[in-house]
Amino acid sequence: MNTITVGHRAGPRLLAGLSYYGPAGLPDHHRQHGPLPAVGRRLIDVVDAAGLTGRGGAGFPTGRKMRIVAGGRGSKVVVANGCEGEPASSKDRLLLTMLPHLVLDGLAAAAAAIGARDAYLCVHDHEASLLESLQAAVAARKDSVRIQVSGVPGRYVASEQSALVQYLNGGAAKPAFSPPRPQERGVRGLPTLVNNVETLAHLALIARYGDRWFRSAGLPAAPGTMLVTVGGAVRRPGVYEIELGTPVGEAVARAGGLAEQPQALLVGGYFGAWLPAGAAWPVPMTHAALKAAGGALGAGMVIALPASSCLLAETARIVRYLADEGAGQCGPCVFGLPALANAMADLAYHGGRGRAGRQLAALLPLVERRGACKHPDGVTQLIRSAVRVAARDAREHDVAGPCRGITREPLLPLPGEDL
Ligand SMILES: Cc1cc2nc3c(=O)[nH]c(=O)nc-3n(C[C@H](O)[C@H](O)[C@H](O)COP(=O)(O)O)c2cc1C
Ligand code: SF4
Which class in CATH covers the domain with range 219-306? Predict the structure, then answer.
């Protein structure tokens, strides 16, 4: 997915400084937005009033998290999560490669607001040129916070916030058992604010233009804009900036509309859920509305699956990938996810014995809500949505064997696969 397109009714905000000629350097960034104003603790009130929520997947209120960290004892630390572990998402990479100073401004503003002297910007360690360009961007600035660009292992669970903290503390990049959460005890034992890089980019704009400006886009209960990665059977796959509350179908329309008759949409990424295309179309893109519709907003991905693909086979590939990506330290990851991946593959590719569906149904409750982190629950949510949305296909696979869709080229992207 390499087309980068901007679409926003009220004009782009985050993507306003995007140029087709290359990454925005510091002078370009200042020409677009002016220098970052001096901010202090009052910024937390402004972020609260703006109603900014985290764009890393869970949608936690950013002001509330900043206040918890600021209220902790002693020095503080900020960690910008730029790992973008979701293989189907491209938004964080777009920000970091094309608009790095927007993210760095957000990091500096968050540090000033909570009283942090040290900050880390984390990206995957195999992204050598990204690491290099971010180091150069940091060197071009005069921030009072010390910003260190850190490479972390490119595994799915390594970018969960406690895994990042554990890695920065010299340990393995695996989710830690909580409490304490990073907000209370994080890097070097200090209260640590972990935010997604898109969240920080919004924060950089709120520091300049204020809470009322932020709320002038989106819905009162879900204000502002967000970046979505739209892919699959659409004419112009890419990253788009939309207002919160934009219907899913309109996000697809921004990407040029459907390229093929759709069967279902995967909304929210691999920790999200499948929704029937027709049902998903009018649903406003907010955490609450998508949850009520049986989906998830996650980190803002919409992937259209064509009618000729096999939803069960696509899901089986992703479940196998996610099972292999577990940290192997809790029962659900060690035993549950591999068993689920086998059962899902059985249903998708073998079937015909009438037992794969029953096997899946028996395994799901044994895995749910039993991991130290949300990794296993993300996988079970995806499987449950697949067998719900493709219920008829699942029965036919189970009884009569796989459909013709399994012979089609896989659609959902996975790391290392060039689709
Ligand atoms: C398995 C797993 C993987 C995650 N990967 C990412 C990631 O790649 N990027 C990200 O920003 N958040 C990721 N998160 C969420 C982070 O733990 C954390 O909630 C987020 O960085 C906080 O930022 P926000 O409040 O700005 O959204 C992941 C969570 C889980 C459970
Ligand atoms: S559930 Fe899995 S990924 Fe999460 S902490 Fe346990 S072993 Fe690690």
Answer: alpha beta
Of 198, 275, 263, 259, give the one whose Cα is nearest residue 229.
198
- Residues 396-405 have a mean pLDDT of 80
CATH 3.40.50.11540 fits 17-216, yes or no: yes
What percentage of the chain carries pLDDT values higher than 70?
Answer: 97
Report residue 380 as tokens. Answer: 């079970």
Q: 92, 161, 206, 330: which to mutate for ligand 1, most atoms within 8 A of CB?
A: 161
**Is it true that domain 311-407 has CATH number 1.20.1440.230?**
yes
At 113-131, the pLDDT tens digits run 999 999 999 999 999 999 9
Comparison of pLDDT for 185 and 8, the residue scoring more: 185
**Residues contacting ligand 2 via CB (< 6 Å):** 157, 174-175, 326-330, 332-333, 371-373, 375-376
Ligand 2 centroid to residue 326 C-alpha, Å? 6
- All residues at 6 or more sequence positions from 370 whose CB lies less than 8 Å from its CB, including other chains: 330, 331, 332, 336, 376
Backbone angles phi, psi at 332, to 5 degrees: -60, -30
Ligand 1: residue of 47, 93, 187, 196 to mutate (most ligand atoms within 8 A of CB) is 196
Domain boundaries along the sequence of the chain? 17-216, 219-306, 311-407
Residue 2 — φ and ψ, nearest 5°? -125, 0
Q: What are phi and psi of 119, to 5 degrees?
A: -140, 150
CB 23 within 8 A of CB 97: yes
Confirm whether pTM is higher than 0.90. yes
162 lines ligand 1 (CB under 6 A): no
Tokens coding 238: 């890419």
Please identify, by atom number, the ligand 1 atom nearest to the C-alpha of residue 375.
Answer: 1
* Ligand 2 atom closest to the CA of 371, numbered from 1: 1
pLDDT in tens, 40-83: 999 999 999 999 999 999 999 999 999 999 999 999 999 999 99
